[in-house]
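note to self — DONT lose this again. spent like an hour looking for the file last time. sequence + predicted structure for the chain T wanted, 499 res
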Amino acid sequence: MKVVLVNPPQTLPAKSVGVLEARIHPPLSLLYLAAVLEKKGIEVAIIDALVLGEGALFRDGDSLHFGARWQLLKEKIAELRPDIVGITSPFTSQLRNALAAARLVREINPDIPVIAGGPHAVVSPGDFLAEKTIDVVVMGEGELILPELISHYDGSGSDLSEIKGIAFRNEKGEVVVNVRAAPVDNLDELPYPAYHLLNLEDYFHVHEKGFKGRSYASVSQTMPVITSRGCPFNCCFCSVHLHMGRRWRSHSPENVLGHLRLLKEKYGVRHIDFEDDCINLNEKRFEEILDMMIEEKLGLTWNTPNGLRGDLLNESLVSKMKKSGCLRITIAPESGDQDTLDNIIDKKLDLRKIEAAVDLLQKYKIATHAYYIVGFPGETPAKMQRTFDFAARLLKKYGVVPSVTMASPLIGTRLYNESKKAGYLIKEPAPEDILLGSHPGGEGLLRTDEFTPKSVRDAIKKFYRRVFFIALGKAPTLIIRDPRAALEKTKGLLKLAAG
């Protein structure tokens, strides 16, 4: 039995700022699945269309096609002669590409079982099964579910109706959604990702695939690492708990250090992107990881692109973060208005602690980036302005570079459910609407008595014009800390400021 796991090309909005400088990372979810399958003696291969062949970046209508052309992907799948194909859909906005990849498999051999998974598969498995190109959808973490499915297809396992965590069509063509499977309880029992199945050099080099003279790039010798899963918090807009659950689970510090050592010594990695949703939720564990990195003298640098809890930082931790190789940190205040945080977003966060944290980060010369969201139902223009003022103050006083987006009702979240019930949705969002629905240059998906998408979009553009002139004054400091990040962020700020 040979399994081929596919990361399809992506479709990106042509007018999205910064998309052409996107970093390319290996598909971690597929690497973990492959490692589990190999441990069970199953032959497995991975195709990452984002780096397949020479890659591609070309205009396709109002969008950009990012990754190998479809014909090349089809040829590669056929060449590997799979018995089963698994396809990941890492973002809701990429559903159509997962379905397109499945159609390629059907064209190669209509009898090959096709399995799909990803965050959107949890909240809406029927979207995948609406076409007969996909046979089974995995809902949630696949490391325990996929081996069961393979046993089913090789004739040694259970009937599909008995496998938890999947959706499928029965003999009548009806969609059946089984009960959810329990999450992976002990993450240390999972093998390290099967990096050997990919050529990591593909991710270390800068790719110059021009589109009107521009390019996209990956950060040299950088690898993503996830040390924990799940989120216990209740932010109205977030879908993490739908996919990974509310119970926070983590690898042990010893396991994390072994993973880092493997990446450095075997694969020549120099920088780590910790992609956890909340790496420092357990402060003691986080400190132990930092202590081990310092004692080991790995010489790695690192950052947290998805963010960490700024309100859980203290001087002891920040000092160790710096000493262990931390270059930059992302935090996510989400709002600069405490009432919006408390009573609309429902994020248990004290803004006074955020300001104290960024003061410490500046003291230790750790570059800081912050995410903000405006345009929530119940939010007024005055509340949004407090977010803009807070973000501008943190930039001017501490050098914290802001990113502001519009609230986007991801399907299955409390924001989506409550907005739909109250009639705030401008339209029922299709998967491809989600990405551009949150972007300042996008159309927006929410309208209330207090705001329209245009008024929110105009307010964000006005804010970025203000921020651009602050950033000009801070430019020497920002460039010294992180020249690449400063250059990319300045390009984006200039575009947004121009409106």
